[in-house]
Amino acid sequence: MKKSLLIFTSALIFVSQLYTQWATVSTGGTKDLNSISFYSATGFAVGDSGLVKKSLNFGSTWSTLPFVSTTNLNSVYSTSSSHIYACGEQGLIYKTTNSGTNWVVQTTSTPGINYQKIDFIDSFTGIVVGDNRRFAYTANGGTNWITGQLNVPVGANLNYRAVDLYDNTTSYIASTDTLIGMMYHSYILRSTNNGVSYTNLLTFTTGNSNPFVHIQFVNSTTGFAITNKGYCIKTTNGGSSWTNYLMNMFCESAFFINAVTGYACGTGGGLKKTTNGGVTWLWQNSPTTLTLSSITCTDTVTSISAGFDGTIVKTNNGGTFTGINQYSTEIPGNYSLSQNYPNPFNPSTNITFDIPNASNVKLALFNVLGTEVKVLANEYLTAGKYSVNLSASELPSGTYFYRLTAGKFSDTKKMILIK
Question: What does the alpha-carbon distance between residue 271 and residue 281 come to, in Å, rounded to a whole number?
């Protein structure tokens, strides 16, 4: 009886942890997931070599479905629980009308055309964009697709992996980048004539390659565009002007619930959240160190993200923050990594480090076998003094090592978790 009670209590603790932070809900395989989409409780995730996963309970459990080909699928969109569209390589677009039991290919295979992103405003009207400004548009649920190249300004003749079809006449697209002179240029464009032509809203220039990975308008005036190097670019006047905010992460995807709250995912299992309209982004506790490629939300607190090796993670309460904080803007003289405190600890501890120069910084946790089990920071940081709160509630007791890498500097220290 005591043993049964202990098992029951442990199960309750596990469920409690599952619903108070991000948790891994699906893993396995060597195929990567590239996109995820939900309609109410029903969700689909698609990826390489025709990988398709389905959930019927808001992403808590997943099953793998057979698919009609081994095409790499780059994007998926659910217009209802039964009608789902997917696009990918070779210019192929697929549709199911029975919740994934059967898929029909709607376009002809065209070598060299790779579609990257699909978006719909209802069950009939949708757009697909891809490499070399290729696009496809339907107004009848995919019975017919108009295909061609986006009519964009000459400088914006690039690849596109971000699109937002806002209404029947208005769509927004954001490009990858190209090197012009000594600067990389990428573009945000808008069409107000059903895609007949696009006008440039913003030319974004940086010293390093920094392509757009996401664009989304949450209402007629407020929109967000996210770059791979972690810039959140926001407009509150329909694109007439834009403001840049630094996310400090390597971003692969983002999703905004409304004008205030949004999530982002990226390399090293990175997860961040904003609760003030993109002005600041805080790290969330992530259960994986694998790259997360796509993220979505089903309500204000439930978010699901998918990525490498078939990994899917989920939070039911908006996630928990790691607590990374720049507590001083004083410029330190040297790089340094301090011993965590307290040590030993259970279940949380603090780590401080100094960065004398703006650097790409990674702070990671390893077990005694040298396996990376958690990434606490993986971003571009300005010079200053930083502290990170490590929550290890999901890890077993034992000895761990944490390593700071910044520029040419690297240091490792030991910590002990006792539960």
Answer: 10
- Positive or negative torsion for Cα 235, 236, 241, 244: negative
Q: What is the predicted pLDDT for the residue at 323?
A: 62
Q: What is the tens place of the pLDDT at every residue in 197-252?
A: 999 999 999 999 999 999 999 999 999 999 999 999 999 999 999 999 999 889 99
Q: Which of 363, 367, 372, 369 is nearest to 404 (CA)?
A: 363
Beta strands in 15-158 (DSSP E): 23-26, 33-39, 42-47, 52-55, 63-65, 73-78, 84-88, 93-96, 104-105, 115-120, 126-130, 134-138, 146-149
Give me 370's structure tokens: 């040298």
Nearest to 416 by CA among 344, 347, 366: 344
Residue 181: φ, ψ to 5°: 65, -120
Sheet holding 23-26, edge to edge: 23-26, 312-315, 303-307, 292-297
Which conformational region is residue 21 in: left (phi greater than 0), alpha (psi within -120 to 50 degrees), or beta?
Answer: beta
Q: 3-state class of 348 per DSSP?
A: strand
Please tell me whether residue 154 adopts helix, strand or coil conformation.
helix
Q: How far apart are CA 366 and CA 400, in angstroms?
A: 6
Rounded distance between C-alpha atoms, residue 76 and residue 95, angstroms: 10
C-alpha triplet 176, 180, 182: angle, nearest 5°: 110
Are 356 and 332 within 8 A, CB to CB?
A: yes
CB 183 within 8 A of CB 206: yes
* C-alpha distances in Å from residue 81, one per residue of 1, 44, 46: 43, 10, 15
Per-residue tokens: 330: 């004083």
Q: What is the pLDDT of residue 14?
A: 36
Whether the CB-CB separation of 376 and 402 falls below 8 Å is answered with: yes
**Sign of the CA dihedral running 86, 100, 24, 41:** positive
Contact status, residue 289 vs residue 280, Cβ threshold 8 Å: no
Report which of 237, 235, 184, 193 is spatially closest to residue 212, judged by C-alpha positions.
Answer: 184
Distance, in Å, from the CA atom of 412 to the CA atom of 337, rounded to the nearest integer, reads: 8
Q: How far is CA 74 from the centre of its chain?
A: 13
Report the relative pairing of strands 126-130 and 63-65 from DSSP bridges. Answer: unpaired
pLDDT at 376: 86
